[in-house]
Design brief:
Structural class: mainly alpha
Number of helices: 5
Largest sheet: none
Keywords: Membrane, Transmembrane, Transmembrane helix
Number of strands: 0
Radius of gyration: 17 Å
């Protein structure tokens, strides 16, 4: 009798997203694309921290990296929501990048928050 593959739950998918190293790198790329020209110093503080979080994740500190990513994604989301955006500006390339970064912030806060809360700090041994 062949076994059926078990379908992942939505919470497990979010947690797997939070334990991945790509989301902070992607958010850092979107933030840089929005704020590099013209240079805006406050939002440009976020990409180095997000890239460091990705580095920590690749170094084996998945739980800690998830916590940093969740916190800094939430902070950037709050900072980005303070800016006023008219309806006309929402349908431009810059508006689409802003929308994508805000959506990614929301998913990062949820997924990385789950990975941080339910993650373990024990070292995983390769067998």
């Amino acid at each position: 009798m062949a076994e059926k593959p078990v379908k992942e739950s939505a919470l497990q998918s979010l947690r797997n997203w939070g334990e991945n190293s790509v989301p902070p790198t992607l958010l850092a790329t979107l933030v840089t694309a929005q704020h590099a020209r013209p240079f805006q110093p406050l939002p440009m503080l976020f990409p180095p921290v997000l890239l460091f979080s990705s580095y920590l994740n690749l170094s084996g500190f998945e739980t800690d990296a998830a916590g940093i990513t969740a916190a800094w994604s939430g902070l950037y989301g709050l900072l980005a929501l303070r800016r006023k955006n008219t309806l006309k500006n929402k349908f431009t390339v810059r508006g689409a990048v802003r929308g994508a970064s805000l959506g990614l912030c929301a998913v990062n806060v949820a997924g990385c928050g789950l990975a941080y809360v339910f993650g373990s700090r024990e070292k995983k041994e390769d067998k």
